[in-house]
Write a structure and sequence with these properties.
222 residues, six-stranded mixed β-sheet, three-stranded antiparallel β-sheet, Rossmann fold, alpha/beta, globular
Length: 222
Amino acid sequence: MTSLVHCERVEKTYGSGAAATIALRPTDCEIAPGARIAITGPSGSGKSTLLHLLAGLDDPTAGIVSWPAIGPRAALRPGPLAMVFQGPSLLPALSVIENVALPRQLAGVGAANALGEARDALARLSLSELAEKLPEEISGGQAQRVAVARVLASKPVLILADEPTSQLDSENASRTIDVLFQAADAAGAALVISTHDHAIAARFPTRWSVADGILDTTDLTS
């Protein structure tokens, strides 16, 4: 089976000389189609760095990141790869439905069709009543769910989520993970999240860990 992402001896260092910070040490891993992976580790361990490399949002200092089942880096977005960020990611000047529709429009879908797909995605996540609101008019938890709706509307084959529940209470955190699973199942996509919450990680069939920039892909469920 052709992997969605393949990492070969990938490293990431920020800065140089005495000020250099090693964020990720030599790493080999791959993400298979349909995978459900939680990456655990404390804050600052390298989880976000790894996800940004997997998403093609950052360049490795050494090693190679490739996307065999997707294509070149330029083909990742919008569409095949979608990411839910840890912090606020909605554009403040756009309404909720416009935020959700934007990736589809950037992919070349006409405005009317993109808005229709956005309405469907919001409805599936019980967010229809928020469609015309601006991001400043909704709660942080609702904004995270809207970000997931945006992912669902983009019809990805890979969803990456960086600490998607870190700002939420336990009830809303659980609901957000429910929504991510629903989005991945509906799209037939692989889902990879980073989290420091072991209760969240326990819901995933495959669990990896990162500590001091070292990724351990020995499945913690084994």
